[in-house]
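lol ok so funny story. i was supposed to be doing the assay writeup but got distracted and ended up predicting the structure for this chain instead. priorities right. anyway since i did it might as well share w the group, maybe its usefull for someone
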Amino acid sequence: MSHTYHRTKVDLNAQQNGITGGVLECSCPKLALVIAEGGPKAIKRYVRLMTVRMKWRGENFHGESDDDDDDIQEEEEVAQVLPGGEVWAGMGTKRMFHNFSFQSCATSEAARK
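and the output, tada:
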């Protein structure tokens, strides 16, 4: 989620749907984990945003360039960091988060703490 478009869409839709949780980003290896808590209708809309509506490949937000080689190289880089999908979905008795926030870590070991 290094692009501002992705961060903004994820954050705004979480706020609009009343979702709590957060995004945990790691630099090495390059990955992001999204944790979302909310009602069934809000979670359904949020999952749809993340899997269907979000433009992960960057069709609309990359700047135009004249060099075709750069475009091909950018597409290959973006294809390598596509989302993996939903890992777990379930119900909890109470919410564990109070708001929606972003956190960054340098390594996966730091993220575990």
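The two ends are 21 Å apart (CA to CA). The mean pLDDT is 78.
back to the writeup now i swear
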